[in-house]
Amino acid sequence: MKTVYPHEIRPLLVDIFQAAGTPSDIAQCVADSLVDASLKGVDSHGIMRVTKYVNEILSGYMKPAARPVIVKETPSIAILQGGAGFGIYALGQAMQIAIRKAKANGTAAVGVTEVTHTGRLGQFVEKAVEDNVIAFVMGGGAYRIPGWVTPYGGAKRLMAPNPWAIGLPGGSFGPVVVDISTSATAEGKLQVYRAKHEQLPPGWILDKNGKPSTNVEDFYNGGFILPFGGHKGYGLSVVAEMLCDALLGMPLPKDMNWFIFAIDIAVFRAVQEFQQAAEAFLSEVKASPPAEGFQEVMIPGEVERHSAQNREITGIPIPDETLQKIQETARQVGIDVKL
Amino acid sequence: MKTVYPHEIRPLLVDIFQAAGTPSDIAQCVADSLVDASLKGVDSHGIMRVTKYVNEILSGYMKPAARPVIVKETPSIAILQGGAGFGIYALGQAMQIAIRKAKANGTAAVGVTEVTHTGRLGQFVEKAVEDNVIAFVMGGGAYRIPGWVTPYGGAKRLMAPNPWAIGLPGGSFGPVVVDISTSATAEGKLQVYRAKHEQLPPGWILDKNGKPSTNVEDFYNGGFILPFGGHKGYGLSVVAEMLCDALLGMPLPKDMNWFIFAIDIAVFRAVQEFQQAAEAFLSEVKASPPAEGFQEVMIPGEVERHSAQNREITGIPIPDETLQKIQETARQVGIDVKL
């Protein structure tokens, strides 16, 4: 395990993306997103992703210079076609449009199609919150791949972990950012349990016969990841799937589409009044005595903010294997670097 | 246990509400809603509620003749003040406005304040789906009461089960209706376990010290209901709370406010294309082999629709005690009836 600092790794990522054919502004946008995710502790969506992204460029799947094009637009809605470009860049552009339309119109909805991986979802609603806009983002539409998640009550690999992110301002508590998948676990977490030969918590997977299991091998032998929270998480997953596929059309073969809706706070209430009311409620939340096994109650998004504050100082810990892969990725695009 | 049919019970409910001072159209709207909820198997939000509603009228808490007033309006948003009237009527009116605005504008958001209980939430998004509008409804803002639900990681009675409902058309499969609370269980369900002296499933409650428990008495001795799905359900509850309180202002002292978001399908895609794409996905869902303990995979909302189909024929089963209470309620407003 090594430690890297944002000022060391960010320029390298920009160089790698540019060397792979990415225009400077998009390379910087994507590098910022990956470093920010790593700072926030969401390592799975952080700097390790450079390897996947460059592989997708080199294989021809991702078009690094593609910029999203608006294919449908009214004062309150837009559909952006990403042209197989960076999802992080395209969803960021879509959120800017959603914010602008919400500010002008009160409410807005924007769809994004034909994009690759979009990174940490919370980053997009954080942008909206900076402008005092409440935003929802959902991803879905990958059922044709299919994904590892079974419908509730079933035993079928069908849906992806269709994520939701929602952001609202929280006054002096900072942005409230809900950033969740609708599956009980990520496949990446199953890999961690597998490597450690540990039992899974109950409620994460079914075996190939549709029987609940805590043996991670049962998943890899044809089993299924469950939706989180039974029929409830399943319902939210179905909603994301239908908004992103039935409403927006088919995504890229290995990815999802995205649906944003945005609400301008000021059209309902003076922003300062909202902030004060939010603080009053969040103060009550923070004043909760902790439950057994907890130090304190966290407001959604607070864990990530704490991580970023720490990692700005201590640096981002990165496993040696990940660093090696980043070096290899750099070499693939002609950059020789020692990390 | 007796059985009643809609054509028997609906006119009685209308008579009771009218005798308690409710205008005919509102009485019919509320009676229809309660009978529909009972038909759909959601007995807790069905005809048994007549007793609570009439008590609230007789105590002066509910104003049965109040009609919601629009206190803020733009082409895409509205805020309705309910004047302490029937929540079922007010939220129904609000949804009509949201549908109309979404049809005109593409997207819309409508808030509802100062209303009493709103019945089964799914009924409102079903109305939107009839008009090919996708709708979200969330309830919250009751943290000052406070509710029984603790924030995740905490041990504090704070939030109500802040519900969410979302509806989308499902082509030949009928409306897809997600109608969920953000708590792991309803307090009413705990009463059922208590009466039967049964152990609770894990993950529903904490005892008064914030320790997980499956003993229902631990809840009644100062314990807490958990959010569903850990930090994920907690996040969704916080979102509903902030949309309905920080954005809309304080609710009535014993109730919640409501927030609707609506999207016109046709502004994104031809409705027929949406329906076909929805069917293609839902066919894959329905084709899932059942998991252990299940007969078949259900599309969200399907269980309720099946219940209604059955109960239209077999009638609505009602416990004797509930029937007696309805008779007493009728008598309180001067109606003598034998059920």
Number of strands of chain A: 12
Largest sheet of chain A: 7 strands, mixed
Percent of residues in helices of chain A:
40-55%
Terminal-residue CA separation of chain A: 12 Å
Assembly type: homodimer
SSE string of chain A, helices as H and strands as E: EHHHEEHEHEEEHEEHEHEHHEH
Can you give the mean pLDDT of chain A?
Answer: 97
Shape of chain A: globular
Please provide a brief summary of the model.
The structure is a homodimer of 339-residue chains. Chain A has eleven helices and twelve strands.
Structure, explained:
The structure is a homodimer of 339-residue chains. The first copy, chain A, has 339 residues and is of the alpha+beta class. The first copy, chain A, has helices at residues 6-19, 24-39, 49-58, 87-105, 122-130, 187-196, 216-220, 231-246, 271-286, 302-314, 320-332, and strands spanning 2-4, 69-73, 77-85, 107-115, 133-140, 164-168, 176-180, 205-206, 212-213, 224-225, 257-264, 316-318. Chain A is globular. At the A-B interface, strand 4, strand 7, helix 8 and helix 9 of A face strand 4, strand 7, helix 8, helix 9 and helix 10 of B.
